[in-house]
Amino acid sequence: MTDALRFPIGKFTAPALVGATELRDYRERIRSYPDRLRRRVAHWSDTQLDHPYRPGGWTVRQLVHHLADSHLNSYLRFKLALTEERPTIRPYHEDRWAQLPDSQLPIGVSLDLLTALHHRWVTLLDTFGAEDLIRVFVHPADGKAYRLDEAMGLYAWHGDHHLAHIEGLAQRQAWT
């Protein structure tokens, strides 16, 4: 499988310095993501939703539910970082979560969850001061401390990354 199929917008690279322009961009991409995703897939048939977005990948249905799972975990990580000193977050097995029965539900459940979640998330992000942006959470897999300004960029990228997977599938299949 090519990197173009795995990483259609490239891998995430955090800027050395996250400035005001980047922060505005990250907030806007996080704010608008549920609507952008909904516009793309809400009208798709079950056959389209149950098609893998790339060879060996999840179905589009699983991917939409993964986005809700992932962004919910991120939102909670932000809240932990804001209320605790250098919390170590709890990772989860995304691949196993995608196999659970709730990943077969209609996608409207996760689209609605993403809409509500992103509304709360952006409300929180809009209150951030400089001291909030440098707060961190620690990922136990590598011991890396992630600053919230960097995590904002990562999750803005994450949504765009998976939307590009869906867009690529739609183009390859000639779906509207």
What does this structure look like?
This protein has one domain (19-173): dinb family like domain (Four Helix Bundle (Hemerythrin (Met), subunit A), Up-down Bundle). 61% of the residues lie in helices and 3% in strands. The protein has helices at 3-6, 20-41, 46-49, 60-83, 94-97, 107-125, 130-133, 148-173, and strands at 136-138, 145-147. A hairpin with a 6-residue loop joins strand 1 and strand 2 (145-147). 23% of the residues are buried. The mean pLDDT is 97.
Largest sheet: 2 strands, antiparallel
Mean pLDDT rating: 97
Output the CATH class name.
Mainly Alpha
- Largest sheet, order of strands side by side? 1-2
Strand content: under 5%
What's the end-to-end separation, in Å? 25 Å
Name the shape in a single word. Answer: globular
Helix content: 55-70%
Class derived from helix and strand content: mainly alpha
User: What is the radius of gyration computed over CA atoms, rounded to a whole number of angstroms?
Assistant: 16 Å
From the 3D structure, determine the CATH topology.
Answer: Four Helix Bundle (Hemerythrin (Met), subunit A)
Condensed summary:
With 176 residues, this protein is mainly alpha-helical. Helices cover 61% and strands 3% of the residues.
